[in-house]
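Rotation project, supervised by the postdoc (A.L.). Task for the rotation student: set up a whole-complex structure prediction and record inputs and outputs verbatim in this book. Inputs entered:
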Amino acid sequence: MYNFEFHNPTRIVFGKDRFKELNRLVPDQAKVLILYGGGSVKQFGTLDKVRQALGDRRLVEFGGIEPNPRYSTLMRAVEVVRDEGIDFLLAVGGGSVMDGTKFIALAANYEGNAEDLLTSRPKPAQAPTAHPIGTVVTLPATGSEMNSGGVISHRGGKFVFFSPLVYPRFSILDPTLTFTLPPTQVANGVIDTFIHTVEQYVTVPAEARFQDRTAEGILRTLIEIGPTTVANPTDYDARANLMWCATNGLNGLIGVGVPQDWTTHMIGHELTALFGIDHAKTLAILQPAVWTVRREQKRAKLLQYAERVWDLREGAEDARIDEAIARTRSFFEALGVATRLQAYGVTADRLDEIVRALEEHGMTALGEKREVTPEVSRRILEEAL
Amino acid sequence: MYNFEFHNPTRIVFGKDRFKELNRLVPDQAKVLILYGGGSVKQFGTLDKVRQALGDRRLVEFGGIEPNPRYSTLMRAVEVVRDEGIDFLLAVGGGSVMDGTKFIALAANYEGNAEDLLTSRPKPAQAPTAHPIGTVVTLPATGSEMNSGGVISHRGGKFVFFSPLVYPRFSILDPTLTFTLPPTQVANGVIDTFIHTVEQYVTVPAEARFQDRTAEGILRTLIEIGPTTVANPTDYDARANLMWCATNGLNGLIGVGVPQDWTTHMIGHELTALFGIDHAKTLAILQPAVWTVRREQKRAKLLQYAERVWDLREGAEDARIDEAIARTRSFFEALGVATRLQAYGVTADRLDEIVRALEEHGMTALGEKREVTPEVSRRILEEAL
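Outputs recorded:
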C-alpha cells in the first residue's frame, strides 16, 4: 500500500425527504445562492421544496448551468455572488451543477483572472478561501457531492481542478428526488460510477486489499442493481444502492494508497468536447478498448477483476480476460448504451483530430505508469471504432 | 437501506515515518499534553520520536493509562489539562489511550460531575466543547483513531460514550510503529476488527449492498492477512492491511444505514470487568455462541456470511451455517486465542453473576431487534462455556 492522506469532511444526509433538514444544515443568517441546471428541478418541484425548506433566509437563484458546465456561464454566477453579497452556495442538481458551483466558490474569492484556477490543483495564493457549499443531489453519478474536484469546459477543452476548499459542507442524497430522471441519465450514472471505480482499481497490484475489495463491492453492486434501477426508477432500494455507490466510487475511499489510471476519462473528455457525446457514454466506448490495448500492463488486475467481479476462475488467462472485457461491454450495452465510436458517428478519419486535442491539452503520458503516449491513445481509439 | 447521516472529519495520515509530520498537523502555538499507556512507547522509542517531531512546542506528558482505562486515572489527567493550560491532546497508543484521551477532552470542559458524561451520548450542555485531539496509533484494533466513541471503566462496569466533539483532528497510522507489538496483541487486534465488522453485518438484511460488500471485504482481508501479520510482524503489507481494515471497521462506513447488533461487545464488557479477560478474547469466546443461539433471527445474513466470506455455497442451509461458525472459531483459535469460557477459568457457576451484571448495567434488550433478554444472554453464555 502506498502512503496516503485521507480527509473527507463532507456530511452526508441520506434518505427519503431529507431535504427538509436544509433548515438545520444551512447557517441561519446566510444569504443563499441556489444554483441549478435546466428546467427539471423546476418541473418536478424540487426547487420549490428546497426554497420552502430554507425558511425565511434571503435567497437568490441562478439557473441554466449546462451539462459540461462552461467557464463563461459560471463567471456570470460569480458576478451574482459578488453583487448580491452571497454567503452560501446551494447546488441543486447533478455533477455539472455541483462541479460548476465548486468553481464559482473558488472564483468568487480570486482577485486575478479566474482562468488561472483551471489548473488541476490551484495554489492557495490563487484561491485563498472559498464560499461554503451544500448540495442536493438529483443525479447519482459523479461523486462530486463528496469530493473536492470538478470538471469545467472552456475554449474547446475540459479542465479538471481540485481544491480541499470545495468539499461540500453537506450533501443531501435523497433517492426519491432522482425517480423522475430519464432512463438514459440513470444508465449514464451507473456507467460513470463503474468507470470511476475501475480507473482506481484495474491498474497494477499494490497490496491494498481493503481498497480492492471495496472497489469490487461497488462493481458487483452496480452489476446487480444497474439494470433494475434503469428499468424500475421508483424501486427505492435499487436507486439508494446506486446513489451510495456513486458517492463512494469517487470520495477518495477506494483511491487512497493505490495507483490510479484515468486514461479513459482523459480521452473521453476530448470526445465530449469534440463531438458532444455524453461523458458516461465516452467512458463506455473507451474502457473495453483501453483494457484490450493495455492488457499486458494490467494483466494481474484484469485477472483479479475477472475472478472477483465476474466469477471467471476457469480456463486460460487470456480467455478469462477476454470474457471479462466482453461481459463489461455487454453490461453497458444492456443498459442501453452503445460502446463503439461509430455508433455515435465518429469514424476513423476523425482520430487524428482527437489525438491532436490530447496533445494540445498535455495528455501525452496517461495511465497508472504514464505509459499511454499519443500513439497508445491512437491504438485505443482504433480499437474503439 | 435505512436513512442515515455520515460525517467523519478525521484526517488520516497513513504510512511509514509519517509521525514526522506532527509538526505540520499540530497547531504551532499549542501547549500539548502527550498521553500514553505503559512503558512500550518509551521502550521502543516512539515517545522520543514524537517529542522530536513536535519541535519546540511546550510539552507535558501523562503516562500510565491502563488497558480498559479507568475513570479515576483519566480524571487525574483532566487536572493536568486544567492546571497546565493545555490546548491540544496527543494520544500515543492503542484503543485504551485514544478512548481515554477522548474522555479527558470532554471532561476537561465540563463543570459538573464528570460521571454525567458516562452516558452513551452526552448532551451538548454537559460537554459544550472538547479539547482538540490527535493520535499516533501503535495498535491496530479499536478504530478509535477515526470515530467519535470510547469505552471507560468505572465502578466495576464499562461505559460507552459517543460525542461528535471527540473525532480526532488527525490520526497517524504508521504500520512500522506496530512491529514491536507482542503477537497476542496483534491477534487481539485482528479479532477486535473482525467482531466490529460482524456486529454491523451479521444482523438482518437491509438492502445495503455497499455496506455489506465492504464488510465482507474487511472480513476476507483479515482472514487472508491475520495469520501472516501475527507470525511475521515486520511484513509491512500485511500489517498495513490490518491497520487500514481496523480503522474502516469502526469509522461509520459499514455501519451507516444498517441494523447493528453489539450483543457480543456488551456481554464481553462484563467478562472483562468481572474476570479481566482481554476485550478481544471475550469477543472470540462469545461470537460463535451468539450465532449459535440466534441462528434463526440471523439466518439470512449467516447464510450470506457463509457464502461470501467462506465460499460455502453447497449443502443444506444449516450445514453451511454450522460450517461458517466452525471456521470462524478455527480462525480465532489459529491466531492463538481460545474460544471457550472454561479456557479462561470461567465455569458454569459464574454465569449468574455475569447475567446479574448485565441487568445492573441495563443490558436487558440487546441485539439488532432488542431481543436479547437476560435469558437469551444466559443461553449464549452457556453455549460459550
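Student's summary: The radius of gyration of chain B is 20 Å.
Supervisor addendum: The beta strands of chain B are 4-14, 31-35, 58-62, 88-93, 133-137, 149-154, 157-162, 170-173.
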